[in-house]
C-alpha cells in the first residue's frame, strides 16, 4: 500500500494571502491532511532547490518573504539556476508533484481564462498543465475573477475530466454556485477514487479536477462578489497591471473590497479542500 500523500502549493502563501494569514492557513492545511491519515507535502523553491514537503521554518520563510517569486512551470529553470526562493503555482506544483509520484493535490481556486482574454491572451498555465499532467486537483473551481464559462470550455477542449463534489454545479470560488452545470458529480472519496482510477486505466495523461464548493457558512453571495470583482478589475485596468501580477493584484483588491471577507472564505475553502483531498488520497492508496 502506497503512503497517501497530498501535494499543496505555495503561491497561495507567497502571493495569494497576506502575512500572517498565509502562514496560518499553510499550517492548517497540513494539519487537515494529517488528521485524515495522509502526509502533506507543501511544494516550493528555496534558494534554487525544489522542496517537496517544506518544513515549518521553510513555510515561515516563504510566508514572511517580500521577495519570493511567483513560479509557474516556465519559471522553474531560471529559479533553479539563479537560486531563487519562490512559491509554486498550480501549474508548477502539478509538474513537480508528478515527478515526485504524488497524484493528489489540494489548492484554492485554479487559474483559468481571464476576462478580456480576447485582447490580452491571458490564459493561466494551470490549464495547459491540467491538459498534460496526470494529477487530481481538488479546488473550489476557478477563481471568480476569471471568465468561468471560457475556463470550462478550455477544460473541455483539453479533455480534462471535471467533477463536482456532492454538487453538479461549478462552484465560483467565493460562492457556492456559478449557475454553470458540470457534467459529473461524485458523492464520496471512494467515488472520486474510482473515477480517477478509470481515468488512469484508460491511459489518459491529463489531470482531473474535483470541484468542492466553499463551506456554506463562509461562502459569499454571488451578487456581492460580482460587484467587488467589477471594482477590482477597474483598479487593475487603471493601474495597468499585466501578466503574472494580475491574479495577485486582483486577490488583494478583493480582500480590500470585501473588507477581509474574501480572506475568510479563502481560508475556509482551502482547509476543506485539503481535507477532501486527503480523504481521496487515502482511498487511492488502498486501491
Ligand atoms: N488560488 C488561490 N490563491 C492563489 C492562487 C490560487 O486561492 O494565490 C494562485 C495559484 O497558485 C494559481 C495562480 O496557480 O494563483 C494562478 O496565477 P495565474 O492566473 O497568473 O496563472
Ligand atoms: Mn496569466
List the SSEs and their pairings.
Layout: E1 5-8, H1 11-16, H2 21-35, E2 39-46, E3 49-52, H3 56-64, E4 69-71, H4 76-81, E5 86-88, H5 90-99, E6 104-106, H6 117-120, H7 125-132, E7 136-139, H8 148-157, E8 162-165, E9 184-186, H9 189-201, E10 208-211, H10 222-239, H11 246-257, H12 261-286
Parallel strand pairs: 1-2, 1-6, 4-5, 6-7, 7-10, 8-9, 8-10
Antiparallel strand pairs: 2-3, 2-5
Helix pairs in contact: 2-3, 2-12, 5-7, 9-12, 10-11
The structure holds pseudouridine-5'-monophosphate and manganese (II) ion.
How would you describe the overall organization of this protein?
The protein has helices at about 10-15, 20-35, 55-65, 75-80, 90-100, 115-120, 125-130, 150-155, 190-200, 220-240, 245-255, 260-285, and strands spanning about 5-10, 40-45, 50, 70, 85-90, 105, 135-140, 160-165, 185, 210. It is built from twelve helices and ten strands. It is α/β, with parallel strands linked by helices. Helix content is about 50%, strand content about 15%. The protein has one domain: Indigoidine synthase fold. The chain starts with a strand and ends with a helix. The longest helix is centred in the last third of the chain and has 26 residues, at about 260-285. Helix 2 packs antiparallel against helix 3 (about 55-65), helix 2 (about 20-35) runs parallel beside helix 12 and helix 10 (about 220-240) packs across helix 11. Strands 1, 2, 3, 4, 5, 6, 7, 8, 9 and 10 form a ten-stranded mixed sheet that branches. Helix 4 links the parallel strand 4 and strand 5 (about 85-90). Pseudouridine-5'-monophosphate binds near residues 11, 91 and 107. Manganese (II) ion binds near residues 122, 244 and 246.
Amino acid at each position: 500500500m502506497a503512503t497517501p500523500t497530498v501535494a499543496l502549493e505555495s503561491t497561495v502563501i507567497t502571493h495569494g494571502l497576506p502575512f500572517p494569514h498565509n502562514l496560518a492557513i499553510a499550517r492548517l492545511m497540513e494539519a487537515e491532511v494529517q488528521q485524515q491519515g495522509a502526509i502533506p507535502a507543501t511544494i516550493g523553491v528555496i534558494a534554487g532547490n525544489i522542496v517537496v514537503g517544506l518544513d515549518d521554518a521553510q513555510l515561515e520563510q516563504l510566508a514572511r518573504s517580500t521577495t519570493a517569486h511567483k513560479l509557474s512551470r516556465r519559471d522553474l529553470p531560471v529559479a533553479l539556476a539563479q537560486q531563487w526562493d519562490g512559491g509554486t503555482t498550480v501549474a508548477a506544483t502539478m509538474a513537480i508533484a508528478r515527478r515526485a509520484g504524488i497524484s493528489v493535490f489540494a489548492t484554492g481556486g485554479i487559474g483559468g481564462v481571464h476576462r478580456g482574454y480576447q485582447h490580452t491572451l491571458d490564459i493561466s498555465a494551470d490549464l495547459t498543465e491540467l491538459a498534460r499532467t496526470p494529477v487530481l486537483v481538488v479546488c473550489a473551481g476557478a477563481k471568480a475573477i476569471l471568465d468561468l464559462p471560457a475556463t470550462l470550455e478550455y477544460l473541455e477542449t483539453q479533455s480534462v475530466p471535471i467533477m463536482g463534489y456532492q454538487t453538479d454545479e461549478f462552484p465560483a470560488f467565493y460562492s457556492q454556485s456559478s449557475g454553470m452545470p458540470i457534467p459529473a458529480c461524485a458523492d464520496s472519496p471512494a467515488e472520486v477514487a474510482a473515477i480517477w482510477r478509470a481515468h488512469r486505466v484508460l491511459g489518459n495523461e491529463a489531470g482531473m479536477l474535483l470541484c468542492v464548493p466553499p463551506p456554506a457558512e463562509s461562502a459569499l453571495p454571488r451578487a456581492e462578489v460580482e460587484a467587488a470583482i467589477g471594482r477590482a478589475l477597474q483598479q487593475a485596468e487603471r493601474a495597468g497591471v499585466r501578466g503574472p501580477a494580475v491574479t495577485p493584484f486582483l486577490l488583494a483588491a478583493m480582500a480590500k473590497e470585501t473588507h477581509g471577507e474574501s480572506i475568510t472564505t479563502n481560508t475556509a475553502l482551502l482547509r476543506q479542500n485539503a481535507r477532501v483531498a486527503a480523504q481521496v488520497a487515502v482511498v487511492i492508496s488502498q486501491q
